[in-house]
Amino acid sequence: MRAETRIGFILLLTPLVLWLGLLIVIPHIDMALISLRERISFGVYEPSLAQYEKALTEPLYLRTFGRTAVMSVLATAITLLVAFPVAYYIAKMAKGRLQQVLFLLCLIPFYVSELVRTFGWMILLRETGLISSLMQWVGLADQPVEMLYNDAAMMVGLVYTSMLFMVVPLVTTLESLDDSVIEAGYDLGGNGWSVLREIIIPHAMPGVVSGCIVVFMLSLGNYLTPTMLGGKDSLWFTEMIYNQFIVRSNWELGAAFGFMLLVLSSAIVWGMLRLTGRTLQETMG
Amino acid sequence: MTRTILLTSTLLAGLAGAAQADTLRLLTWGGYAPDDVVEMFEEQTGHTVEVTKSNNEEMIAKLRATGGGGFDLAQPSQDRVMGPQMEFGIYKPIDVSKLNQDLFIPSMLEATMKNTTVNGDVYGVPHVWGTSGLVLNTAEAGDTVKDYTDLCDPAVAGKVSYRLKRPTLIGFAFAMGEDPFAAYGDEAKYKEIMEKVEAKLVECKANVKTYWGGGDELMNLLRSGEVTASMAWDTGGWKLNGDNADITFVAPTSGALGWIDTFVLPAKGQADDAAYAWINFVMQPEIAAKITASAGNFTASAGADEYAEEGLKAKYQASFPQEAIDNIKWYPPVPAGLESIEGEVLDRVQAAN
């Protein structure tokens, strides 16, 4: 009997170990080795820390690095602000069929690929696009308005792309909040604001934190949206990694950038957990 | 009994056929292997062709990642053969005697072979050639923009688009009176030229609507009138010319930049015979003309011009008077090390405000 459970355990564990080992651990070790060498001449490489030195001393790389982090945090915050009322309405105010319909509506944009969704935004925002034409027709503008290729357009794209990943965990946690607890809060003399602050937000905290982590990771690692909507001023760290690997054929610096991104995202997630006083176990469990 | 024998012999015949017929995994550009040409080739030779579309950088990155495996025939530009071969060894020498050399335009074959020779071995033969220069809406920007640097003119502010890639750096350098190709061997001099170009591009950034990435993106911008002056390939301009007679390709006064896409054999290619067969097949004048019709660019096939479509010939002649042809600057092979200089310049331009 015990031997059988053991075999079952090993069989169940194998796919996970293979997945982690082959697709995550081994490539990362290889990347680490690549990032720790320097090209001397044709096909000759020497171990060195030159790539990290370059990445940390060139102001341009550091600026992009910082910009990507700040913008991702901002995108996460905006997503939370937009998604919280939506999630609250779906979980607490809407009843029965309406609830399912609303939830489905949040899901529908994800039936098409990210590329198509981004193109959708480009059609809306471009100079000859829908919004610009509408504004001219209404009389708000007397010439075509360009709304693409700036940070605001990029932010809109990022928030739109990650909405669902914030709404789902929020709805789940908010649904588990008993209505009578909120009522009790009002009975004890609380108003809308204090009930929100003392009861609803503390209860929703696990959902908020896990939603934020997912959205932050998605924004930080996004390549398509910043490149397409940000245009000439978009400078996203993933784009720099792509450039180093593909365009410049400089795998060493690209690998170093990759590791910096990994460290940065881990550090910010850790910081977020510290700030909210939660552990990873509480958030994930 | 007879049935069994019949069956066995069919099976055997099938096996024999399979041994000869290879799968040719072709890594190429959009339009270089149109469906009808692939079908004709498969019918004639029994080989099957798998086409993967890509661009220079991705071709080299893919081959580098596998050490030259995964494909049997690739088509990088001729200036990207020597450097990557010396650096990564991702190609194998071409046995030119297996090719029907009469099918090629002699001068082009000779020049490409010379530019792709490493340690006495030839690595590339020419296929499709073309130029990059200015694609303009001549009605709106034709009077202002005559050369690359005119893209920074206030008259076209906000209506300009170009790529943030090396052809832009080279084009601007020529337009600013420098000769970057002559400085290929002199890293210090090249760096100096690139710094001047960088200053110009940073200054010019306010004029640019966006840096385009893919051809379709630029086509949309020009077609909708959001962009009136851009730096692009000749074919792009000619294609748009069909929809809007005002838009066309113009060779800049400092000279259009000429490129030749080649055939190379990846180091771990497994179907060399099929690759040679494909090259010999597509270089036949009638077939080459089909590729010209689909890609929009002319090929190095001798005599294919006769079969080319009249409309395209007319557009070509309008964009390229004789002196513009003589003024084409052909890309020499890129020495190693220059691309990292260019890369840093491009990064800084992208980050500038």
TrEMBL record, chain A:
It is found in: Cell membrane. The lineage of its organism: Bacteria, Pseudomonadati, Pseudomonadota, Alphaproteobacteria, Rhodobacterales. Belongs to the binding-protein-dependent transport system permease family. CysTW subfamily. Residues 65-272 form the ABC transmembrane type-1 domain. This is ABC transporter permease. The chain crosses the membrane at residues 7-29, 69-90, 102-124, 152-171, 204-224, 253-273. Keywords: Cell membrane, Membrane, Transmembrane, Transmembrane helix, Transport. One of its GO terms (cellular component) is plasma membrane. It holds the Pfam family BPD_transp_1. It is a multi-pass membrane protein. It comes from Sagittula salina. GO terms for biological process: transmembrane transport.
Automatic annotation (TrEMBL), chain B:
It is found in: Periplasm. GO terms for molecular function: polyamine binding. The keyword Cell inner membrane does not apply. InterPro entries: SBP, Sperm_putr-bd. GO terms for biological process: polyamine transport. Residues 1-21 form the signal peptide. Keywords: Periplasm, Signal, Transport. GO terms for cellular component: periplasmic space. This is Extracellular solute-binding protein.
